[in-house]
Amino acid sequence: MKKVISLLFFSGLVAGALAQDFNKNLASARSSYASGDLENARFAMEQLLNNLDAAIGKEVLAMLPTAMGSLNYNQKDDNVTGSSAGIASGLYVHRTYGVHPKSATIDIINNSPMIASINAILNTPLIGGMMRNDNQKVVKVQGYKSILQKSENSDTAKTSFELQVPFNNTLLTFKMDDTNEGEITQFANSIPISKIAQVAQ
Amino acid sequence: MKIHYVLPIGVALSLIAFSASAQFGKRLLQKAGQKAEQKAEDALDKKLAGNQNQNPGTTGGNAPGTTGANSTGNTKSGNGNPSNNSGGGLVSTPPDVKQNLADAETAYQSKSYGEARYSVQQAMLGVELEIGNKILKSLPSTISGLNKIEQEDQVASSGFGWAGLTIQRKYSDGKDKQFSLVIANNSAWMSAINLYMSSGGYAQQTGGQQNWKQTKVKGNRAIIEYNEGSGYKLSVPIGQSSLIVFEGINFASEQEMMTAAGVVDIDGIKKQLGEQ
Q1: Which chain A residue shows the shortest CA-CA distance from B270?
Q2: The pTM is what?
Q3: Which of B114, B120, B273 sits opposite A45 (nearest CB)?
């Protein structure tokens, strides 16, 4: 209960700050454009996109399950940002579950240039055939074609799985350590992918 | 005795006669065959001519479904659909920046963040196209005696940050000499390219070959390359995330290429793109 109240309080604070930033950047974009300062207008619009991505990310985060079986989510690791996704600006949502050695991670990236290459593997038999290996296969999760990759720790002999689900221009990556195919697929089915796709598009 | 001579002569004569008749028969058969072939070809020609009249969309040796320049009054393509021979294409009006910003505000207030983002992207697209057109206007109309090809002017943007803005201009003498420049700005890839080029990574990659070298254009570090097939290529990274690529076809020397690139106001472009 305490956790839920603090989460709601935190969300309220973030929403307020986001709204302030959005209004400030919108005003800046308008005034720069009106004065013919196109470069600054563009910069303000980039900030607006970041604000909106953060707002969308917050909504997506609220949709993600708070537990994967016995693994509870780590609230302090929750991360929503509009720009720090490495090479791609855009939506980035991050959530972790459990603690080492049994842990899981969900990453959602929007507008990612990586999506094209994953879609190529999924939809082009020739490319898919060339790039596939014994530890990789194409599976369907809630009707979405996905890539499931298995890796084995040679020291502990435990297996980890990574599931990549591309939809529209968004990529959802679900990683889990010390697991098996059945478990990761079961947990992946608890992620509301179609709802996330709707919000993130 | 007479019979003794007559019999072989008779046999020989009949053999000659048979042979002659066989040759005649053969010729007759050949002739008949040729006639039959000719008839068949004529029939086929007539048939084809008839088909062409029935299907005017496939004249002049064109593939079915295509309308050739020598076709007359074609109104249907090979699959029976009418061919499009009118229509004004798409109107390439840049998005209305002010309207899209207003739409974004409304969508944000109603918590339709996806819609708000779309509107901001459209507004950004509008601004990027304006920036591109402004830069195109600032470029000289002639470089090294080559005139700009106005219809080849191009500004491309997707409104997505990582795809960036691309501006293109071409100059030509109307024959085989051409100078072109492409400005790529604000793409996520650009910062990586700039870092790679300015840190000497490019030099290590192609070390030993003499078809490239590092140089400077108006104080900006650059790479010049020469290829027998495509001519000169001069890449100038500017600021944090922009790159200008000059290409010269049929330029006599490196010096001529450098002089042509030097005509372009790189600092002015840098300023307009907001680069430092």
Answers
A1: A39
A2: 0.66
A3: B120
